[in-house]
Amino acid sequence: MEKKKTPKRSGGIGSRLAISVFSIVFVSLIGSASTQTDQPTTEDTVFSFAEIINSVLPSETPESLSQIVLQYKDDAVVDGGQRLYMSHCATCHGINLQGAPNWHRRNAAGYLPAPPHDETGHTWHHRDQLLFDLTKHGPQVVAGSDYKTHMPAFEGILSDEEIVAVLSYIKSTWPEEIIRIHNEQINQN
Ligand code: HEC
Q1: From CA 103, how far away is CA 98, in angstroms rounded?
Q2: Using CA atoms, how far apart are residues 83 and 78, in angstroms rounded to an integer?
Q3: Phi-psi region for residue 2, left (φ > 0), alpha (ψ -120 to 50) or beta?
Q4: Whose CA is nearest to atom 7 of ligand 1?
Q5: What is the distance between the alpha carbons of residues 2 and 74, in angstroms, rounded to a whole number?
Q6: Which of 42, 103, 154, 164 is the S-S candidate for 99 at Cβ 3.0 to 4.6 Å?
Q7: pLDDT (0 to 100) of residue 125
């Protein structure tokens, strides 16, 4: 697997990136220990996640999109989000959010299968804002325009409110402990 080198950054951003990568790997370890899943939590998983995260610069998030908060406790939002999930996401990510088989392995052409959105995947390793940006603009928004992916950009297909709703539905399905870590650690980074 190709592993991107983290480009050299000037002090502040570099160390902030290092801290966030560290805390995400740390949270992954907690996650795999506490969820007791059979899913392989291989280095591949961490790498594919790190590939994306390594390319994130805080300054790349447009100001206007910096206030996203998922409404996972709002039943009306979650119900609407579930309908949108079934019509727009389930074919790839699974009707039970289970993802595609072997989702952490790139195929020969270099594409990843769709990952799960349940607690066995790494969707919950990303803060609300990043989930929104990934869904609206596609993974290229953080991984670079030449990144090969089957994940569509939903801008022009779903409104911002609909993207928040579908992600709120996804978050509402996570176990309590994962939601707690997401709120207290991931969203604080
Ligand atoms: C055509 C298939 C397809 C559809 C439809 C699709 N996705 Fe994806 N999605 C993918 C693939 C493949 C990836 C892995 C991205 C990569 O290539 O690194 C992905 C990744 C993601 C990620 C990043 C997850 C992570 O762990 O980093 C999010 C968030 C996401 N999708 C949300 C959605 C949402 C929300 C919908 C519906 C509105 C949706 N996707 C519809 C294929 C799809």
Answers
A1: 10
A2: 9
A3: beta
A4: 151
A5: 41
A6: 103
A7: 96
CA distance 149 to 49: 13
pTM tops 0.85, yes or no: no
User: Residue 63 is part of a domain; what is its CATH number?
Assistant: 1.10.760.10
How many whole angstroms separate alpha carbon 100 and alpha carbon 116?
Answer: 7
Domain housing 50: 11-186
Question: Residues enclosing ligand 1, CB less than 6 A?
Answer: 88-89, 91-93, 112-115, 121-123, 126, 131, 134-135, 139, 149-152, 154, 166-167
The amino acid at residue 51 is E
**Residue whose tokens read 């080198």:** 5
Give SS3 for 98. Answer: coil
Domain count, the chain: 1
Gap from CA of 12 to ligand 1 centroid (Å):
30
Nearest-CA residue for ligand 1 atom 29 is: 131
Query: Does residue 44 sit within a domain?
Result: yes
The protein residue with its alpha carbon nearest to ligand 1, atom 2, reads 92
Q: Which parts of the chain register pLDDT below 70?
A: 1-66
Q: Is residue 6 part of a domain?
A: no
Q: Is residue 2 part of a domain?
A: no
Kindly state whether residue 4 falls inside one of the protein's structural domains. no
